[in-house]
Every structure is written in structure tokens, then in C-alpha cells.
Amino acid sequence: MQRTNHARTAAAILIIALLGAAAAATAATPADTAPATGKSAKAKPKPRGASTKVRRGPPNHSGETTAERDRRLYRECQGLPNAGACLGYTRR
């Protein structure tokens, strides 16, 4: 037969009951149950105006533009194997 600690079990049940009661009490606060003051219960969507943003790729921290990078890679990759950083830059 298994021995149980009834005092520990009773304390655990009491703690769970108290936490449940506290959660129930905070769930129904007067601010939540108050009627809306003339406003619609549904949230109105914000008008979509001039907030469109142009997304570009990640910033280039090397300080060169893509055209400059292309010219540099064509220049540096002449005669090298068409692989790695030179992939596509060995011939014009």
C-alpha cells in the first residue's frame, strides 16, 4: 500500500483553488464589463494612405553600388573558374 502525505495534497488543492478564484476575480473587472461609451465595439481599420514603403534588399555595407560591384567582379574574375564569387562574372 502506498503512503501519501495528505497535508501536502490538501495544501496543493487549496493553492490551486485560490489561484483559480483569483484568476476568475480578475477576469471580470468592472472596466471590462462596462458598456461602450458611444463607440462601436468593432475596431475601425486605419485608412491606408501614403504609408506604403519601398522595400529594398539588405543594406550594402561595402559602400559600392551594384553597378560598381558588377564592374569590379567582371574585372577581377577574368580568367578564373566560373564558380564561387565569380559565378556568372567570367565572361560578358
Features:
single chain, 92 residues, mainly alpha, elongated
Q: What share of the residues lie within helices?
A: 40-55%
Termini separation comes to 86 Å
Number of helices: 3
Give the tally of β-strands: 0
Structural class label: mainly alpha
Cα Rg: 34 Å
Reading the helices and strands in chain order gives: HHH
Average pLDDT, rounded to a whole number, is 78
Low-confidence stretches: none
The major pleated sheet works out as: none
In one word, what is the shape? Answer: elongated
**What share of residues are in beta strands?**
under 5%
What does this structure look like?
By secondary structure, this protein is mostly helical. The protein is 40% helix and 0% strand. The mean pLDDT is 78.
Set down the secondary structure blueprint:
Layout: H1 6-27, H2 30-33, H3 66-76
Short note summarizing the structure:
The chain is 40% helix and 0% strand. The chain has three helices and no strands.
